[in-house]
Amino acid sequence: MKDGSAENDGLEIGIAIDKAIDDMPEDFLIREFLLAHKAEVKDMCLTEYNEAETMEMFREEGREEGREEGREQGREEGREQGREEGREETTVTHIKDIMESLGFGMEKAMSVLKIPAEKYGMYRLLLEKSGKS
After folding, report:
1. pTM of the entire predicted model
2. CA dist., res. 31 & res. 83, Å (int)
3. Residues 6+ positions from 112 with CB-CB distance below 8 Å
4. How many domains does the chain have?
5. CA diameter of the chain
6. Predicted confidence band at 45 (pLDDT cuts at 50, 70, 90)?
7. Which of 90, 91, 102, 124 has the highest Cβ tally under 10 A?
């Protein structure tokens, strides 16, 4: 009965190798050599079989490492995006505070905070979204 385990597969292959060598026709020139070196031949065949299995295991490990690196990169990008959003929210709060405390308009408050002019539009939208413009 086949249970699918690697150990059982190895046993079945070992039996098949023994049978192939033992059942080889008498007139095959290599038969004598294979019988004389049966253990070594069997070990080589099993090693080849296991090599394919091992290579698949390495490929799967490589895929898993790639997935984990991708997840970590995604987490880092998410953290960076969160930090950027936090900085923007803090800047919006500072703009509001300056507008309220000093009575400045939006652009004057952004100028005081030395916000680059190319970012005025973005902060204008964030201020409008927050209910203060």
Report:
1. 0.51
2. 72
3. 98, 102, 104
4. 1
5. 106
6. confident
7. 91
